[in-house]
Amino acid sequence: MEDDSRPTPSASAAGNESQQRVDVLLTRLNSVKNAPAWLVTSWQSVNGAGDNSTAKIFLVEGGFPAWFAYVLTKNATESKGHFDGKAAQCQLIADLEGESVAYRKILASQLAAAIPRQVREKIDSLQERKIRPLNDGVSQGPSKKRKTDDNARSSDRDDQYQHVLVNAPLERAVTLFPRDLFDSILRYPDPKNEGGFVAAISMSFPAQREGTIECQMALEITEDKVAYFARELFKNRVETKDGLRYLRSGRAKIVPNPKFTLTGCDHGIIPSIFGKKASRGIETSPKYRNEVKQCRDITDAVSMVISASAYEGATISLDLGLWEGTLIKRELYL
Asked: Spans of biased composition, class Basic and acidic residues (predicted)?
């Protein structure tokens, strides 16, 4: 059984060594183009592995991309051929087996945070195609895949939602939101106009009203604006170090694993951030109106999901009243 009580290196030495190891693990991940033949077998194997196995630690702590980076490196070291950097990769794989569980968990999180967005999107797509069909009964769920087909702007998703719309035209979104917010929204290639772009905005309308949800809007925010909106909307201080985000609470740090949700937005800031029409939609939502009746001056009708990775953006969700949400839908999509 592994002894997990060994002393760890000094902070500076450990930080430098960890960064070097992350760089080695990223080498093969950054250049991978296709799913290797052993992918499915390795996936099935890791889900039956012990909790303290290195592969399982990377999967649980860093998600599919971090696990994939580790097994890509490990399998390469077991090949007979020679390639540049093989010695360093062999040394790393061997050394990791002698490290504590706590250290390997930290390294997996750091690796996940360091994966470039373009690489992560490519790996997420690979997971969606190759692993998702195998995921029944497996705790590691499939990644969220953005719709980009020609019918994406108006599509049925499941029994819970009657209507889901994505890919808002930029020329319409710019008239709805204040410029600061509009400039902070991610852009995606327009699936219907080669060379064009759309705003990463989605709206969903439940087929049957459940609880306080009538209409929801989601805005995907660029990574450089996450700290700003966390501070302005929720009065929370988000900081970044070594590619990881954390929430500062006094002298303590709250680290997402792998994400956390901020709620409790101050009523007074909503109009200046979201503009007149979206603010009216928020104020007419059942959740907001119920909070006003209770004399609350903050609302959970505005929330923000933040990732631990400083290289990822965030998603701001707005609960809207059905009528106002329908008016916004017409302005954005119809």
From this structure: 147-161
